[in-house]
Structure formats: structure tokens, C-alpha cells
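Hi, here's the filled form for the chain we discussed.

Project: internal
Contact: R.S.
Residues: 127
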Amino acid sequence: MVNLIICVLFFYTAHLFLKMTFSLHKVPFVNFTLANGDLSKMTDLSQRMGVAGENLRQSLFIFIPFAVMSAVLGVDNLMLAKTWFGLRIIYLVGHILNLYRFPYIRPIIWLPSIVVLVLMGLNLCVS
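And the returned structure, exactly as it came back:
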């Protein structure tokens, strides 16, 4: 479980740079580092990476405590944690490919990751 937590944190760190990486040819690096930098020329892909990063950040605050508690208490949530991580990778790929312009694709990918988090929490309560 500890290795998976480290992988998830590296994934999150990579997420932080994706928004900037896809717009460096249009927006100077300095604008990303300034508090009031002009980001109006960001590409559509960079904006989607920002949305994906924000979504990951929101569910990460639930996943990390569940994963750490699972490791400390010896609860076997490894398969659920791997499933959550895989769904988060698929969610990112969906944003890269702009699949979410179709209305029902996003919930099909996003909702199972929330269900997995609920199952992780239930496993912690039962054990």
C-alpha cells in the first residue's frame, strides 16, 4: 500500500505540471509563476488539465487518509486502491482526448472512483 501511495503522490505532482506544459508555447513560463500572470492564452488542453487536476485534488483528500489508515490498521484495501488509481488515470486520459464533450462519458468514468472510495471507507469501518 505504501508503494501505491507514493505512486499516487507522484501522479498528483505530475498533474500539477500538465496544465503549464501544454501551454508553454503560448504562455511564457513567467506568467505561470506570477500571482497575477496572464493565462488568457492557455490552450483548451491546458484548461482541461486544470479541471482534471482540480478533480483529482478533491478526491485525493479522501483517498490518502483511507490508504494510510488501511496501511496502519492492516486492512486489505490494496485492490480497491489500485482500482481507484486506475480510474483516475483513465479520467485523465479522457480529459486529454476530450471525451467529456459527450455528456454521459464523464459520469461513467468518475462515478466508479467515488464508489471505490466508499468501499474503502466501509472496509475500514468493518475491520
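Let me know if anything looks off before we file it.
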